[in-house]
TrEMBL record, chain A:
An annotated Gene Ontology molecular function: ATP binding
Annotated keywords: ATP-binding, Ligase, Nucleotide-binding, Protein biosynthesis
Primary gene name: gatA
Amidase domain boundaries: 25-471
EC annotation from Swiss-Prot or TrEMBL: 6.3.5.7
Protein name (record): Glutamyl-tRNA(Gln) amidotransferase subunit A
Swiss-Prot/TrEMBL GO biological process terms: translation
Function: Allows the formation of correctly charged Gln-tRNA(Gln) through the transamidation of misacylated Glu-tRNA(Gln) in organisms which lack glutaminyl-tRNA synthetase. The reaction takes place in the presence of glutamine and ATP through an activated gamma-phospho-Glu-tRNA(Gln).
Reactions listed under catalytic activity: L-glutamyl-tRNA(Gln) + L-glutamine + ATP + H2O = L-glutaminyl-tRNA(Gln) + L-glutamate + ADP + phosphate + H(+)
Subunit structure: Heterotrimer of A, B and C subunits.
Keyword Ligase attributed: yes
Active site: K80 (charge relay system), S155 (charge relay system), S179 (acyl-ester intermediate)
Automatic annotation (TrEMBL), chain B:
Substrates-to-products reaction catalysed: L-glutamyl-tRNA(Gln) + L-glutamine + ATP + H2O = L-glutaminyl-tRNA(Gln) + L-glutamate + ADP + phosphate + H(+); L-aspartyl-tRNA(Asn) + L-glutamine + ATP + H2O = L-asparaginyl-tRNA(Asn) + L-glutamate + ADP + phosphate + 2 H(+)
Keywords on record: ATP-binding, Ligase, Nucleotide-binding, Protein biosynthesis
Protein encoded by which gene: gatB
Phylogenetic classification of the source organism: Bacteria, Bacillati, Actinomycetota, Actinomycetes, Micromonosporales
Protein name: Aspartyl/glutamyl-tRNA(Asn/Gln) amidotransferase subunit B
Native source species: Actinoplanes nipponensis
Quaternary state and interactors: Heterotrimer of A, B and C subunits.
């Protein structure tokens, strides 16, 4: 039998449903792979071997009883550590939540369980999802399977790396400014940010409530769509969840894989296709555009004049919300508590706890956000940023009057070496330059591999109108059919 | 600190003009909390009515309780407010351990209801209190400081937090400043809070019990010299009864007048009312420096009540207490002032129910505003909790009307009813207290009285009928007051004619 860890989720689900492999065999193969390579990759913060095997056994028993299995029954999935998993450590890669075991499951985790997927464990990330490299994880960085000396992107570097390292066929990420798409791009995997409100945030430890969006990560567009279909849909426990049916993303991905884009209009974002990106990234991107044209797509250049203000607006809105969302971590109710010696005041204990529990990037953003919301500064910063957000939304809506989707590179540069951008926060923030506008607008976007630059993966981004997630899957799948998936060099060879 | 004698209230008010303002918090009586499905019952074991949402656990999200929004809109409508067609909740950020998220979900510059008013009656005169805003927010938990002498955080060895109350929907009702009420400021404040309580009670959205904290009041007070700008205001918290509202305003007027008399500036500060001494003490001065960093709550969609719904809620409002009082005063044939005392005694519903149970308005009012009000006052309980029910009072008055009880006996029976001995009829039965008007049974007592008082009997025989009163008294005495005086008198005159 071929190695199941190399298969797509769709193939694995097929094996299990036909009885050609048991869910336990599949889970075991992936757990063994993790045991073999994760010391070098460090995609996981916590591996739940027993939980995974129990879930796999349940699927096998279900099958033995002749019960109908879900589309992803028995397929292993890795979950970003920012999502609450009942009884399983959930730290958001922060010291302040070390050892915390949530008493409840996030809605998307409930849906993953209900679909029969097998959760392998929790993946590494930048602390509280703040970063683009996983270098801000309090538990050490994740290494990019393409080059262990380089970053796997962030914040969801662990989820993306687990796919590229064949430790899991599927993973859950969260995207606030690009945290699913940029890691997807730099690890040669697929990452989709659904429409804001299309996937439930209940149980996702909030970074920036108005931007955070959980979504699927996979090695193929179809697999991402299959996972998307399982986790998406209205959740009454999330007030911002959209009470509408989810577009049929799986059908759209399969249609796109047929390779025909006749009649599809692509808007090439002028501001993101020129200088600012590495030449190799631009070359791969433009070659892919040509490939799409060959599939019948029409390409027009679209100017989105306000996109250049997206980054500064984002760095006011996200930290402002974060400064409030992260206030609850004070050592009173759960997590780390420092300095409670019976002599110190409550305020001192709270201060010491937060001082010791938060890392440098989290502190930087809390301070930024606290400042931006302060009386006297609110209008100039938070208020102004909200106006920019409205203008960016207008750029998107007027663009979608002319084209079906917008396209751009996912990120300006390929995976960079560790430490090369940590000394200057702005250089790190640039990694999300092309992904942030979508978050401010609230629409869906996907990153799909489109080639290599200097031997490292380049991502191609497709952005669609809100609740038209199916469109981006169709275009991404078509591109995938034209350029193929990427296979990283063998980790064994570098052992 | 020098201790100079405080001016009298009369002196203070003769020199300065007060401006007051009130912020009232009302806990809504919804079955579930504001943002989760936890129950809201008062008095449960600590931390048993909690869930990930109201504990603010990482990842949990709020979903607004429609019943709470509806109750707030109804309060706004009852207070003659405009209802915002679109508004948002806001986060009020500050660190405090009884707040699980270290922010309170509240409303800031987009309240649900604005620009209303309430008319209150003080000394027979109507005073209009303008309402600035009515908004919705969540309550905090409760902190208990253990091990210190004062029960306050300083000196405590441990602090325990109960989150049962965290997330209970709370409505805040803020008045505009109320100037021009002079010496009546304390009474106006009390009358306003009373009226507000009655209005909210009539809406059946809260039990509005100040002693349980389901209605809490902060009182703002400032003084200025006539013709000058309004002074700096202080905010008095911890005002937990209607009487305290009045006392807090009065004592703050006296305190501020004393400082102003000495030429000392008033600082904007939060003060705490002391129930035992009746004065106010300074709170934590740093509270005034807090920057709450309000911003729109991103976890909740905006509240956009549609006009048809608001119109429906408006049409469904019950009769307002002031309208009801006017109607009942008319029906009962009493003056506005008398009606006000009935209202102040909390007797309106009790009298209504007594009348519904068959008593006349005068009869019902007599007992509730007389004997029972006196007892409630003496024992310090609310009239409704005095121990007699409207049905029992109606029965008692019915027995009096039928001549089965005289006034004196009726009081005795009521005493027994209040003591828990049962309905009036049962008490009469058990104690043998009924009026004896059976002539056969009374004749012996009459004969006995005539025999014992030959001089008086002689006077009556001589036609001095007025002397019969003395014999009636003697008969009443021997029958322990149970005789029907009218029958006794008739019997005496019959015997001695
Ligand atoms: Zn709750």
């Amino acid at each position: 039998m071929t190695d199941v860890t190399r298969m797509t989720a769709a193939q694995v689900a097929g094996l299990i449903s036909k009885g050609d492999a048991s869910a336990v065999e599949v889970a075991t193969a992936h757990l063994d792979r993790i045991a073999a390579v994760d010391e070098r990759v460090h995609a996981f913060l916590h591996v739940d071997r027993e939980g995974a095997l129990a879930a796999a056994r349940a699927v096998d028993e279900q099958r033995a009883r002749g019960e109908e299995l879900g589309p992803l029954a028995g397929v292993p999935v890795a979950v970003k550590d920012v999502i609450a998993t009942r009884g399983i450590p959930t730290t958001a890669a922060s010291k302040i939540l070390e050892g915390w075991k949530p008493p409840y499951d996030a809605t998307i985790v409930q849906r993953l369980r209900a679909a029969g997927t097998v959760m392998l464990g929790k993946t590494n990330m930048d602390e509280f999802a703040m970063g683009s490299s996983t270098e801000y994880s309090a538990y050490g960085p994740t290494n990019n399977p393409w080059d262990l000396g380089r970053i796997p992107g962030g914040s969801g570097g662990g989820s993306a790396a687990s796919l590229a390292a064949y430790e899991a066929p599927l993973a859950i990420g969260t995207d606030t400014g690009g945290s699913i798409r940029q890691p997807g791009a730099v690890t040669g995997t697929v990452g989709a940010k659904p429409t804001y409100g299309g996937t439930s945030r209940y149980g996702l430890i909030a970074f920036s409530s108005s931007l955070d969006t959980p979504g699927p990560c996979a090695r193929t567009v179809e697999d991402a769509a299959l996972l998307h279909a399982v986790i998406a849909g209205h959740d009454p426990r999330d007030s911002t969840s959209i009470p509408q049916p989810v577009p049929d993303v799986v059908a759209a991905a399969r249609r796109g894989a047929g390779g025909d884009l006749t009649g599809v209009k692509l808007g090439l974002v002028k501001e993101f296709a020129g200088e600012g990106a590495e030449p190799g990234v631009l070359a791969a991107f433009h070659e892919s555009v040509e490939a799409l044209v060959k599939l019948g797509a029409e390409v027009v250049e679209i100017s989105c004049p306000h996109f250049e203000y997206a980054l500064p607006a984002y760095y006011l809105i996200a930290p402002s919300e974060a400064s409030s969302n992260l206030a609850r971590f004070d050592g009173v109710r759960y997590g780390l508590r420092v300095g409670d010696d019976g002599n110190r005041s409550l305020e001192e204990v709270m201060s010491l706890t937060r001082e010791a529990g938060f890392g440098p990037e989290v502190k930087r953003r809390i301070i930024l956000g606290t400042y931006a919301l302060s009386s006297g500064y609110y209008d100039a910063y938070y208020g102004q940023a909200q106006k920019v957000r409205t203008l960016i939304t207008r750029d998107f809506t007027s663009a979608f009057e002319r084209v079906d989707v917008l396209i751009s590179p996912t990120t300006p540069f390929v995976a960079f070496p560790f430490g090369s951008r940590t000394s200057d926060p702005y250089q790190m923030y640039l990694a999300d330059l092309y992904t942030i506008p979508t978050n401010l607008y609230g629409g869906p976007a996907i990153s799909v591999p489109c080639g290599l630059s200097e031997g490292l993966p380049v991502g191609f981004q497709v952005m669609a109108p809100t609740m038209a997630d199916d469109r981006m899957y169709r275009v991404a799948a078509a591109l995938e059919s034209a350029v193929g998936t990427l296979t990283p060099p063998s980790l064994e060879a570098r052992a | 600190m020098t201790t100079t004698a405080l001016p009298s209230y009369e002196d203070a008010i003769a020199r300065y003009e007060p401006v007051i303002g009130l912020e009232t918090h009302v806990e809504l009586g919804t079955n579930t909390k504001m943002f989760c499905a936890c129950p809201t019952e008062f008095g449960a074991e600590p931390n048993t009515q909690v869930c990930p949402v109201c504990l603010g656990l990482p990842g949990a999200l709020p979903v607004a309780n429609r019943a709470a929004i509806e109750a707030t809109i109804r309060i706004g409508l009852a207070l003659n407010c405009d209802i915002a067609p679109w508004c948002r909740m806001a986060r009020k950020n500050y660190f405090y351990p009884d707040m699980p998220k270290n922010f309170q979900t509240s409303q800031y510059d987009e309240p649900l209801c604005v620009d209303g008013y309430v008319d209150v009656l003080v000394d027979g005169e109507t005073v209009r209190i303008e309402i600035e805003r009515v908004h919705l927010e969540e309550d905090t938990g409760k902190t208990l400081h253990v091990g210190g002498a004062t029960g306050r955080i300083h000196g405590a060895t441990e602090s325990l937090v109960d989150y049962n109350r965290a997330g209970i929907p709370l409505v805040e009702i803020v008045t505009k400043p109320v100037p021009g009420i002079g010496a009546r400021a304390p009474e106006v404040a009390k009358a306003y809070v009373t009226e507000l309580r009655d209005i909210i009670r009539s809406l059946d959205v809260s039990d509005v019990r100040m002693e349980q904290g389901s209605m809490r009041c902060d009182v703002n007070t400032s003084l200025n010299l006539p013709g000058e700008e309004w002074g700096t205001r202080t905010e008095t918290k911890n005002v937990n009864s209607l009487r305290s509202v009045e006392r807090a305003v009065r004592s703050e007027i006296i305190r501020q007048a004393s400082l102003l008399n000495e030429g000392t500036r008033i600082f904007q500060e939060t003060r705490h009312f002391q129930e035992t001494t009746g004065d106010t003490r300074p709170g934590r001065s740093k509270e005034t420096a807090t920057d709450y960093r309000y911003f729109p709550e991103p976890d909740l969609v905006p509240i956009a009540p549609d006009t048809a719904w608001v119109a429906e809620l408006k049409a469904g409002l019950p009769e307002m207490p002031s309208v009801k009082r006017a109607r009942l005063a008319e029906e009962w044939g009493i003056s506005t002032v008398d009606m006000q005392s009935v209202a102040n005694a909390g007797a309106i519903e009790l009298i209504e129910q007594t009348i519904a149970a068959g008593a006349t308005p005068a009869g019902a009012r007599k007992w509730w505003m007389g004997e029972l009000a006196r007892r409630a006052n003496e024992t310090g309980v609310e009239l409704a909790a005095v121990g007699a029910t409207p049905a029992q009072v109606a029965q008692l008055q019915g027995l009096v009307d039928e001549g089965k009880l005289n006034d004196k006996l009726a009081r005795q029976v009521l005493e027994a009813v209040v003591a828990g001995e049962g309905d009036p009829a049962a008490v009469i039965e058990a104690r043998g207290l009924g009026v004896v008007s059976d002539t056969g049974a009374l004749t012996a007592a009459v004969d006995e009285a005539i025999a014992a008082n030959p001089d008086i009997a002689a006077k009556i025989r001589d036609g001095k009928v007025a002397a019969a009163g003395a014999l009636v008294g003697a008969v009443m005495k021997t029958t322990r007051g149970q005789a029907d005086a009218k029958t006794v008198r008739e019997l005496i005159l019959e015997r001695l004619s």
